[in-house]
Every structure is written in C-alpha cells, then in structure tokens.
C-alpha cells in the first residue's frame, strides 16, 4: 500500500511529495514515469483535494498498460535556411557607370546569400532534453526558431515531424511553448500574480479558478520559487526577485498549460553556475512529466551536462556533432582530438570548434567526419527513434495528443473524446484561443490596472503636468475682457490649450513600446486575441483621461473667464476629453509603428506641430494654398479648436467690438479718445448711418466668420474628434495584426 511522505529537495528551497512503495524494484519504467508525471495529483490528494487538475486517463483499472504515458518523438530532417545580404552601398556606387555585360561584374550587384542552417537533422523524444550548442553566430537560435515554426513559410526548407506526421502551425501553437532569451515580465506584479494571469490566459474557461490556483501553486513548487511567490518581479527602479528566479518565472509563464513541446532560447544566459543548474534542473522535471524540451545553451557546466540527454553542436550553420553527452569522448578521440581527463567535455569541444573555425580549412573536416560517424551508427545499430510500445500503437498524431490531454496535459482548451481500441475513433477539438474575447479583455484590463496602480507616480506626474499647465494659462490669461485685444487673447488661449491636450498625450508612447515584446510573446502562441489587447488598452487608458480633462477644465474655464455657463463648461470638458482621447489614440497608433521611444517622440512632436500650423489659428482656412488644404482637414487640432471657438462665440447678443474699439489693434489706436470719436463721426456720415461709442460693430458670429469657422457645428467637431480616436485605434489594431508576426523572413 503506498503512503505519501514529504521530502526535502536537494537544494533545500522547496518541498515535494513522493510515494514510498513496498517493492520499488517491481515497478516498471513506464509506471514510474506515470508516477513522476502525476506527482502534483498526489500532492492534491495529500491536502484533501478530491478533484486534481490532472485527470487520470484510465478506462480499465485492470489494464496496467493504460498507466503508460503517451510517447512522442520529434524529428527534423535537412533543415536549411538562407537569407539574402545586400552589398553595402559605397560612394563609388553613387557614380553613374555604363552598363556592362560581364556576368561576373553583374553578379556583384545582386544580393549575396548567407546560409544560417545547412541540412540540419536530428530527433528527440519525450522525457529528454536536447541542447543545441555552438559559438555566437553558429545558428543555435535559428535552429530553435525553425523547430518552433518562427520562420516564415517558404523561407525554411526541410521537414519537422512529430510521431512521423508533419506539424501544422495551428496544432504546434497549441501543444508547444517558446521561452525567449530575455525575461519579459511586468515589473510590478508578484511572481504568483504573474503566473496566475498566465493561467487565466492559457487555461480554458471551463477550468474552475480554484483549479487554476492549484495549478499555479504546483508550478511554483516545481520551479523552486515558493519563497519568492509574494515578491514583485522588479526592475531597475524597484528591487525584486533574483535573475535566476526571473528566468524560472519566464519559463513558468510558458509552461502553465503543460505543453508537449517546450523550446527555449538560451535559458541560462546571464546566470551564474548555480542558478543555471537550477533552471536546467527544472527543465529536467518538465521533460520527465512527458514533455520534449529543446533549448540552446552557450557553455554548460559539468553538472548541467549531466542533465542533458542529446547534444547538437553547430558551426556556422553546419552540424559538427549530434549524439548523447556520453559519446563525446569517443567521437573526438576517433576524430584525432581526444578529450583530456578531468576537463569539461563541452568546453573542450567548443574550444576545438572555435580553433578550427579560425583555421584555413575551417570545420569542413569535422562536418564530414560527423556525417560519416552518423552513417556508421545507422549501419551498426541504431534505427531512427520510434515511439515505444503503447496500448494504442496505431494512434494518429491528433489521437496521441488527445490521449495526452486526457492523461493530464493541460493543453489550453483541448477537449478529446474517449479513445476506443476497437475503432480508434478519437477526435481532437482544439480552439484557437482558450477563452472568449470578453474574458481576455477582462484579464488584460485587470493586469494592466494592477501594474499601473502600483506605479502611481506615472499618473501623478501626468496629472501634475496638466494642472500646472492649466494654472500657468489661467494666470496668464486671467479674466480676459470682451475687447478686440481680448478676442485675440482668447484665440491664442484656445490654440495653445487644444494643442497642449495632444502634446501631453505623448507620454502614452512608451506604454506599448515597453510591452511590445511581452505582447509578441503572448500572442505568438494565442494567449489572447490582438483585438482583445486593443480594446483593453483603450478601456484602461480612458478613466485617467476623464480625470485629466476635468482637472484642466476646472483650472482654466472660470479663471480665464470663458463664456457659456454650466452647459458651456460641460461642452468644454467634453471637447477636452475628446482631444485627449484622439491624441492618446494617435500616439498609441504611432507606438505600433516606431521601434524606439526617442524616434517616436521626434515624430510625435513634428506631426503635432504640423497639426497646429494647419489648425486655422496661424493662417485662416481661406488663405491656405489649395495644395495644402487637405492637411487642414486632417489636422487633429482643427476640430477641437473650432469647437471651443463656437462654444465661446456662439452667443448672438454678446458684443466684442463697440464704437471707437474698432480702431484698436491699428495705428489709430494710439490717438486720443476725442480724436477717435470725431473719426467715428466722420465714418458715420460717410456711410450714412449712426455709429456711436456704444454701437456694437462685431459679434461672436462675426468673429467665427473672420476665422473661417463656418462649415461645421461644435457638436459635429466633437463627433469628428471622437471618431479620429476610434480610427487610430483601428489602425493600431492593423499595425499589431501585420507587424507582430514574430517570424523570421
């Protein structure tokens, strides 16, 4: 009778549950593998959970063969990848030259081709770690990308098969995970929160939240980061977890759904020896749970080498060794360069490869020797890897994946029917995304707001900027009167205020640029839809815009002495909010195009300056040249500017120029008042009408006509401004759709 005991791990950092059997020697390898795979289920039974996350696939308890795990073998043959490299442009190329028919000279003008992968072949199976080694530029990351379907279709030659069947892109996305070299994490979330959000994205909605939490807790124990579960990730300005823990969290995010295939690009890069060993030890446990683990690694230590099952050494895109770590000494001994005793095998191999790369002949000899070595192994003993005996030996790949899901693999959204030995009628239903769109929007919004709430200084700085700008404008344009000079001052205030709304939106530029690679990593394997991200981004940013709009309007409306009363103030708030909305959407759209923050700021400042130039303040619409009039209608500042002008000058009873005020802003304005009255009387007699010092000569409608604000009402201007905001959000979506394929070409 088995009993459950708690035991300390070697590193003393975590607890795990093991089963003590009376006759461990009688347990078959497959049964032991199943016990290792279901260790998390045993833990749940120990704490009293009656419904473990991993459901046991066992239709017949008397059939011991059902305890075997579903085997998988990944094979790849003759992978070749070439890229075109154009010749650098020199000053000589700028000088016109006559055409030549010499084919050799003509050939130098065409792009050169560089081979990054050259007929790479290999295979590995579940329970194993395959490591790709080589110097920088050898093709390690390129091979990982090729296996993970991160190279555009048509550019990569060769085949990648799982259990003998070619992997389709959609299937690979669901059953695999890819861990990037950089740790792309939200800095203000804790380890537990980070993994929980990953579970919300990758695990299906049908799985209760309690089981998702149990999955996260089991994963935290498996990763050995239980002591850091409540600690924030951290960044340069906030102290958080260590580098090794960050790397394990990055791995945890991508294995939350327990993938069958796991690809990692240099997971030990930048870590010390102990941290690197801990990371690979975690990967070994993942492999033993029934996964295939393939990673690139720069220079493994002796302890790390002991955890690896298969090695592929690359040199400039060619295979120079492929086999088990144990066969390294014999391989290099037969090549004529035996590995000295007490020396790290991989270090010796890498040093020898680098030495050969620097020689005249390069590594051609080693490449040819490896080909002969592989041929000799095939003839002597080893056929290609085939899945071992299985209760269902004739399963197709989809049926094998379905069986793996039933046995406990938490492939996101995967649902499989029962497997029938008689009919083999297994179907696999794998939706493209684990959750519906509203769940994705809710989860994305919750994560973004939580991360922002823990950085209140960001919103505080933006609010302070808006309030200080409003205060300066209020004190400069304090209580503007209704004179001709007051009209000019109002026009200047409105032009500056509306353009300020857009310039203050420039701080939205780094938001997506900082999240770009997190977004690309998460959407590469269908964690959520791109449309969900766009909608969530808009929803999260909108509440802060409301606060900023009310703060600026309250600071300036009454202090400047604007007209309209309560309804005028309400419209003033709405047009400011619409300006913030369209400006924020415009900057967000640009962040989806430009790759760098500084480049983005340069473009934003330049374009907003053009918008202000053509808004109608500096030059009237009727005076803009025909060949530039299109820019006037594209200007984001034009519509808010015209809206606030109509809100201010719409009262037909309000007068802004009376009698002798008509001489203001002219050389006659310096004359004495008596002289102005006599001039006004002369003008009256000439016109045949009576114009006194109190006669209204210019109303608000006259000012709107002078400014060319006659085509649209203020409400139409408001709607157009809001529409611009939605338009740029749609453009942002298409930028994400077309610009985040995350594949090499």
Our estimate of the beta-strand percent is 5-15%
| CATH level-4 homologous superfamily of the largest domain | P-loop containing nucleotide triphosphate hydrolases
CATH structural fold name of the largest domain = Rossmann fold
Helix content: 40-55%
- N-end to C-end Cα span: 57 Å
CATH class of the largest domain: Alpha Beta
Helical segment count: 26
Main sheet specs: 6 strands, mixed
> What's the overall geometry?
elongated
**Major sheet: arrangement of strands:** 8-9-10-5-11-12
Task: Report the structural category.
Answer: alpha/beta
Number of domains in the coordinates?
A: 3
Give an overview of the whole structure:
This protein is 48% helix and 12% strand. The protein is α/β, with parallel strands linked by helices and 745 residues long. It folds into three domains: 73-82 and 111-361, Rossmann fold; 456-658 and 699-740, no CATH class; 660-694, no CATH class. Strands 8-9-10-5-11-12 form a six-stranded mixed beta sheet, with helices on both faces. β11 (310-315) and β12 form a beta hairpin. The two termini are 57 Å apart. Belongs to the ABC transporter superfamily. ABCG family. Eye pigment precursor importer (TC 3.A.1.204) subfamily. InterPro entries: AAA+_ATPase, ABC2_TM, ABC_transporter-like_ATP-bd, ABC_transporter-like_CS, ABCG_transporters, P-loop_NTPase. This is ABC transporter G family member 1. GO terms for molecular function: ABC-type transporter activity; ATP binding; ATP hydrolysis activity.
């Amino acid at each position: 009778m088995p009993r459950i005991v708690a035991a300390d791990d070697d590193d003393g950092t975590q607890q795990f549950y093991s089963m003590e059997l009376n006759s461990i020697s009688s347990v078959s390898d497959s049964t032991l593998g199943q016990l290792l795979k279901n260790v998390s289920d045993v833990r749940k039974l120990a704490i009293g959970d009656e419904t473990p996350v991993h459901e046991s696939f066992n239709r017949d308890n008397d059939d011991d063969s059902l305890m075997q795990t579903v085997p998988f073998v990944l094979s790849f043959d003759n992978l070749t990848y070439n890229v075109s490299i154009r010749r650098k442009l020199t000053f000589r190329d700028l000088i016109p030259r006559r055409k030549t028919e010499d084919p050799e000279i003509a050939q130098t003008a065409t792009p050169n081709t560089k081979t990054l992968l050259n007929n790479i072949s290999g295979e590995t199976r579940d329970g194993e770690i395959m490591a790709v080694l080589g110097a920088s530029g050898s093709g390690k990351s390129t091979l990982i990308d090729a296996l993970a379907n991160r190279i555009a279709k048509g550019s990569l030659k060769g085949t990648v098969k799982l259990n003998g069947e070619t992997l389709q892109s959609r299937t690979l996305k669901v059953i695999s995970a890819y861990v990037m070299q950089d740790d792309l994490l939200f800095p203000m979330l804790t380890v537990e929160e980070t993994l929980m959000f990953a579970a919300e994205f990758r695990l299906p909605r049908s799985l209760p939240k309690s089981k998702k939490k149990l999955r996260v807790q089991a994963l935290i124990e498996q990763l050995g980061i239980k002591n850091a579960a409540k600690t924030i990730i951290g960044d340069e300005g906030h102290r958080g977890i260590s580098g090794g823990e960050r790397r394990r969290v990055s791995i945890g995010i991508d294995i939350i759904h327990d993938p069958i295939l796991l690809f990692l690009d240099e997971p030990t890069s930048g870590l010390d020896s102990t941290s690197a060993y801990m990371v690979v030890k975690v990967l070994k446990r993942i492999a033993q749970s029934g996964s295939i683990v393939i990673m690139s690694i720069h220079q493994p230590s002796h302890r790390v080498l002991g955890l690896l099952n298969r090695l592929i050494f690359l040199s400039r895109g060619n295979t120079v060794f492929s086999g088990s770590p144990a066969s390294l000494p014999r391989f290099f001994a037969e090549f004529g360069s035996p590995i000295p005793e007490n020396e790290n095998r991989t270090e010796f191999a890498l040093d020898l490869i680098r030495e050969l790369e620097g020689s005249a002949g390069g590594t051609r000899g080693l490449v040819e020797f490896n080909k002969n070595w592989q041929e000799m192994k095939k003839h002597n003993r080893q056929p290609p890897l085939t899945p071992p005996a299985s209760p269902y030996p004739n399963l197709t790949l989809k049926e094998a994946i379905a069986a793996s899901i039933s046995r406990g693999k938490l492939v996101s959204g995967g649902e499989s029917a029962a497997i029938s030995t008689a009919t083999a009628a297994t179907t696999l239903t794998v939706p493209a995304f684990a959750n519906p769109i509203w769940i994705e929007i809710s989860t994305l919004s919750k994560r973004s707001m939580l991360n922002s709430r823990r950085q209140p200084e960001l919103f505080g700085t933006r609010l302070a900027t808006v309030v200080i700008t409003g205060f300066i404008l209020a004190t400069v344009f304090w209580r503007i009167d209704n004179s001709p000079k007051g009209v000019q001052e109002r026009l200047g205030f409105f032009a500056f205020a509306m353009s300020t709304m857009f310039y203050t939106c420039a701080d939205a530029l780094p938001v997506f640029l900082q999240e770009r690679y997190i977004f690309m990593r998460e959407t590469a394997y269908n964690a959520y839809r791109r449309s969900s991200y766009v909608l969530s981004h808009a929803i999260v940013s909108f509440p802060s815009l409301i606060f900023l709009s009310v703060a600026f309007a309250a600071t300036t409306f009454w202090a400047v002495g604007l007209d309209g009363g309560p309804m005028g103030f309400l419209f003033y708030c709405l047009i400011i909010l619409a300006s913030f909305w369209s400006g924020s959407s415009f900057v967000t759209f640009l962040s989806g195009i430009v790759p760098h923050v500084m480049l983005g700021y340069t473009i934003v400042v330049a374009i907003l300056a053009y918008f202000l130039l053509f808004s109608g303040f500096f030059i009237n619409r009727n005076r803009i040249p025909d060949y530039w009039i299109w820019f006037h209608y594209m200007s984001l500042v034009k519509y808010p500017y015209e809206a606030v002008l109509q809100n201010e000058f719409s009262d037909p009873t309000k007068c802004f120029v009376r009698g002798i005020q008509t001489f203001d802003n002219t050389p006659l304005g310096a004359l004495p008042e008596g002289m102005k009255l006599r001039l006004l009387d002369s003008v009256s007699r000439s016109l045949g009408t009576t114009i006194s010092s109190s006669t209204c000569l210019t109303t608000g409608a006259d000012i709107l006509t002078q400014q060319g604000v006659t085509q649209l009402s203020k409400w139409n201007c408001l709607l157009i401004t809001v529409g611009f905001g939605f338009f740029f959000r749609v453009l942002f979506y298409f930028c994400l759709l077309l610009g985040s394929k995350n594949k090499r070409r």
